[in-house]
Amino acid sequence: MVVTLIIACEVGFWVLLAAGLALRYLARMPKTGAAVLLLEPLLELALLIVTAVDLKNGATADWKHGLAALYIGYTVAYGHYTIKWVDVRVAHRFAGGPAPIRRYGRDHLKHEAKLWLRTVLMAAVAAALLQGAIWYVGDGDISSLRGWQAAGLRIVSIHGVIMLTYLIWPKKAPKDRAAPEEAPARPREESLH
């Protein structure tokens, strides 16, 4: 049941995102679209409740509960960012908004470092939820939950190494483009319209 809900939450995330953006830009109903986008956290709340109820009803703590915690952590850390990232692209494509910012050099490294911090947040939220589940289960088999905590640390480490590669080998602007420092000022990608 937990796995089905994780899949439903993921599908629901993209359905709500598409519906919210369609209302904002295609139907020209920005407030209604924003309201639909604000429903996103309810999906994670439902997943958290079902996972807790599943454990309360005596389910053995296993990979499904660990995956649910990691999914909730990902949504907390990256959910809003993902919505903004897609929003900028949809606004550019369908509503004449500015083109998404392309980053190079130090600006790209700084952006990747911020993304890595989001990954740290994701792992921390997941680890906290998993620790709560471990305390809740008590004397039962918690090896799977501990394994998911370790998986979160591995994800943070791998992402950190990838981020550091941009320090060693910075992403270079194409020859026909000016460097970001020389380019005209445009609104940042992070702002919602």
Please describe what this structure looks like.
The protein has 6 helices and no strands. Helix 1 runs parallel beside helix 4 (about 65-95). It starts with a helix and ends in a 25-residue tail after the last helix. With about 190 residues, the chain is mostly helical. Residues about 180-185 and about 190-193 have low confidence and may be disordered. It has one domain (about 1-170). Keywords: Membrane, Transmembrane, Transmembrane helix.
Helices and strands in order:
Blueprint (H helix, E strand, L loop, with lengths): L1 H25 L3 H8 L2 H17 L6 H33 L9 H33 L5 H26 L25
Helix pairs in contact: 1-2, 1-3, 1-4, 3-4, 4-5, 4-6, 5-6
Keywords: Membrane, Transmembrane, Transmembrane helix
Can you tag this structure with a few keywords?
single chain; 193 residues; mainly alpha; 6 helices; flat; disordered C terminus; transmembrane; membrane; transmembrane helix
Give the helices and strands as they follow along the chain. HHHHHH
Termini separation:
38 Å
Total DSSP helices: 6
Radius of gyration: 20 Å
Residue share in β-strands: under 5%
Determine the oligomeric state from the structure.
single chain
Structural domains: how many: 1
Tertiary shape: flat
- Summed over residues and divided by their number, the pLDDT gives a mean of 85
Alpha-beta classification? mainly alpha
Please provide the count of β strands: 0
